[in-house]
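Task 17 of the worksheet. Students: predict the tertiary structure of the chain below and write it out as structure tokens. Keep your answer in the requested format; marks are given for formatting as well as content.
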Amino acid sequence: MNFILDTNAVIYLQKGLLDETLPHGRIAISMISEIELRGFPGLVTDQETRLLRFLDSIQIIGLSHDIKEEAIRLRRDHRLKLPDAIIAATAITYGAVLLSNDEHLHGVTGLNCRKLALKQ
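Model answer:
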């Protein structure tokens, strides 16, 4: 696993807002991101179709014991919201780079986090 996409990265990708292509390598998301993306109440049919097609093309990582324990540590040490803690813990556990524009995540100890360039 090389890269984990944060929920905001998938949204930027789906809306065509990225000013760069995703880096080469294996890409995955946390199941938390899938829940956030598919559970958005304003999602219309063609957006959902594109989203489901994208989700079928990547790995979705569930909640393991190791991810759970790392998320607990992150919540304690960095006061992260539960979804952010699980997503960050997924990247840490898999030794992956988290692609996210969430500024709060960029200060997390032990998390390799990279910002995505957006179109102006």
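Marker's comment: The chain has a mean pLDDT of 96. Helices lie at 7-14, 31-38, 45-56, 65-78, 82-94.
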